[in-house]
Each structure stands twice: as C-alpha cells, then as structure tokens.
Amino acid sequence: MKKKIYQVDSAYAWVVAFSSLGLATIGSGIFYLVAIAIVPQVTELGISSESASLPYGTAMVGMGIGGILMGWLADKKGPFGPAILGSLSIAAGCYLISEIRDFNVIVIVYGLLLGALGNAALVAPLLSNTMLWFKKRRGIASAVVGAGNALGARCGHQYYSGGMLSTVSLLAIELSQFSL
User: Fold this and answer.
1) Is residue 3 part of a domain?
2) Is the pTM of this model over 0.85?
3) What is the pLDDT of residue 154?
C-alpha cells in the first residue's frame, strides 16, 4: 500500500489549521468556566465573590508554565501527545470541578488540569505545529489557530454548560488526530 505524503501549503495543511482552531477553542474556553462553575456557588463553597477569580489566575500561571513544558514535549514527541493529554485533562478537570466542594482543591485542579496540562497543551504546541505546514499563507494560518482564543471566550460558556462536556471531550480527541 502506498503511503500518503502530506505537503506544505496543501489542502491537508488547512485541515491541520482548522483542527487546531477547534482544539484551541476548547482549550481557551476553560478560562470562562469560573463564571459557570464557581461564581454561582460562592456561598456553598464558603468564599467571597472576589476569591472566585483565584482559579482563573491559577490557570493563567499554569498555562504559562505548562506552555513551555508542552512546547518541549511537542518538540520531542510531536503535537499528538500533548493534544490528547490536553483533551483528557480538560475533561477530567471539568468533571472534578463539578464534583469537588473544597475551594482549595478546585484552585489546584484549575491550575494543573485546566491550565498547565489542558490549555497549555491545546494552544501553543498546535499553533507552532500549524506553522510548519505553511510557507506561503503562514500569517492567515496563524490567525485561524489564534482565533481559538476569541472563539473560546465566546463559546466556552455554551459548551461547558448544559451537559455538553462529554461531546466536547470526544470532539477534542477526534480533532487531535488531525494535528499530526
């Protein structure tokens, strides 16, 4: 059987770009999970409404540190591993946040699973991978993947609420196979 060879600036390169866009959207949507999962429960969790933003800050720090680690892992093993790890981490993190009633544990889960292992694995490594697939249209391809941050902000609350988490997790895993 003849092995298919994918080329730079090919139609498959756009499949990689739009698959990475989907994963970046899922990864960036986690930051807005605070408004869905934590703010409505401030009384139940025994925290002030000001403290409800702590998980967001922790996720940002986790994303910064995790982005470096996930970039290193993607350089060593390719982007598929980080994409699967990020997808599974977001699914596990969202589930745990929905079940846990200890705010300190929520902060740790948010920083580690959603930030350092989730978003960090679904944004930077996939953006850099997409750039390898383009020579002529690198600018627009990076804009397509980068738009995932904005789409995550717009769509995040919709796909993380209303029981769509399992669908989003399966979609993320399915999209991961195209970000080779």
Assistant:
1) no
2) no
3) 72
Instruction: List pLDDT tens digits, range 118-132.
Output: 999 998 899 999 999
pLDDT tens string 20-72: 998 898 888 887 777 777 777 777 888 887 888 899 899 999 999 999 999 99
Residue-range definition of the domain harbouring residue 166: 12-176
CB 121 within 8 A of CB 85: yes
With 70 as the cut, is the pLDDT of residue 178 above it? Answer: no
Sign of CA dihedral 156, 160, 164, 165: positive
Q: How many domains in the chain?
A: 1
Asked if residue 87 belongs to a domain, the reply is yes
| Residue 7: inside a domain | no
Any domain includes 168 = yes
**Count of alpha carbons within 13 angstroms of residue 53, beta-carbon side:** 2
CATH of the domain at 114: 1.20.1250.20
